[in-house]
Structures are given as C-alpha cells and as structure tokens.
Design brief:
This protein is an alpha+beta fold and 202 residues long. It has helices at 46-51, 61-66, 81-88, 137-147, 178-201, and strands at 24-26, 29-31, 54-59, 67-77, 92-93, 98-101, 107-110, 113-114, 131-134, 152-162, 165-175. The strands form 3 sheets. A 7-stranded antiparallel sheet has the order 3-10-11-4-9-7-6. A two-stranded antiparallel sheet has the order 1-2.
C-alpha cells in the first residue's frame, strides 16, 4: 500500500522525505512515507507530467461541471496492494467521491470506487470502503475549516501515480449555481466550435 503527506509549506514543492527505515505499518498495511504539495498542471501538459514521473490514473470531470475549484492539494492515500493493481488497470471511478474529516481528526475519502482486482481473490477489499488520506495535521485542520463554509466541499479531482506512488489531487470547491453550470456548458461548447473551425481551416 502507498501513502504520502503534504509538504510543510503550502504552495511550495518539497522534496520527498523518506525515513531511514523507509516503510511503516498502518492497519495491517505497509507503505513508504512521502511528502509534497501538488502544483496543478493543465491537461495539455500531461506529456510533460509523465516525463517527470506523473501518470494520470483517473480524473473527476463531473467535479469541474458542478464546482468552482478554488484551491488544490496533494495527498497520499492508504491502499491495499490489490487496490493499487486495480488502479493501474484503470478500474477507478471518482464520479461521486468526496472527502470529509472525522472526529479523530483524520481525512477520509468516500465513494471512491475501486473495482476488485481480478486476481485478488481473498485479498480484495470492499470497492467503496472509506479510504484514509494522508496530509499534515495543520493542513487537515485548514481543510476542516474550509469544508464548514456554506457551499464548499472537498472533492477528489484526480488520482495519479507519482514516481510509483498513488496520489490524490484534492480540491477545495465551491458549488456552482444552475446559471453557473449553464454558462460553463456554453463556454465549453463555444471552445469546441472554435477548435473545430481551427482544425478545418488548417
């Protein structure tokens, strides 16, 4: 299983930090400890991301339709080995997923569906089980305050592999009104028409 934590300074990229042992156990799982904050890269730069060891596994396109994304974070996630293999095989769905803090001060992601690994047998986990995200406590406290604001939610925007580890791009999102959604659809359709006209011209 894999996990990571956000870096100590928001908005800055910190080099990965690995303890001498390199691995610690949690809930019967083992995972290396990593850290860092994601600086978001647009879709058109995906090839450049892959050159830096980042490979997109899944994106939550519905989130961009339903929310304005006001801030982005990178978090590690606790997963079983069979879940990691399913994600590598493209068996991950973020459509209705969301995040929330618990009474114990942990950050969990809900409704992140990971289909059972076809060769996992007894080692497969519940596809919709809550999964713990890993960030520094002060970052979790900040997100906890953000989610309490009216109209705000914590939404997983994407899941990706970063140097072999599974990471979650977490967005602090504000819900769109119906007219905002209509405007977004109109802008998207207009952009498609412009792109189509440009292709036909050349």
């Amino acid at each position: 299983a894999y996990a990571g934590e956000a870096g100590p300074d928001q908005g800055k990229i910190r080099p990965a930090a690995v303890r001498a042992a390199g691995v610690r156990a949690a809930g019967g799982l083992q995972f290396p400890e990593k850290c860092g904050i994601l600086i978001y890269q647009p879709k058109e730069r995906r090839s450049a991301m892959e050159k830096r060891g980042i490979k997109i596994a899944a994106q939550n396109r519905k989130a961009h339709h339903d929310y304005f994304v006001e801030d982005r974070y990178e978090a590690g996630i606790e997963l079983a080995g069979t879940e990691v293999k399913s994600i590598r095989g493209g068996q991950l769905n973020l459509k209705d997923s969301y995040c929330a803090t618990t009474k114990e001060g942990e950050l969990m992601v809900y409704n992140m569906h990971i289909s059972p690994y076809d060769k996992g047998n007894i080692f497969n986990r519940d596809p919709d089980r809550p999964k713990r995200l890993l960030m520094h406590k002060r970052e979790i406290r900040k997100l906890h305050e953000a989610q309490k604001l009216d109209g705000y939610a914590l939404i997983p925007l994407s899941v990706y592999f970063k140097n072999g580890l599974v990471k979650v791009e977490l967005g602090v999102c504000k819900g769109k009104k119906n007219y905002d959604k209509r405007q977004s659809i109109a802008e998207r359709d207009a952009k498609r028409e412009m792109d189509r006209a440009r292709r036909e011209r050349y």
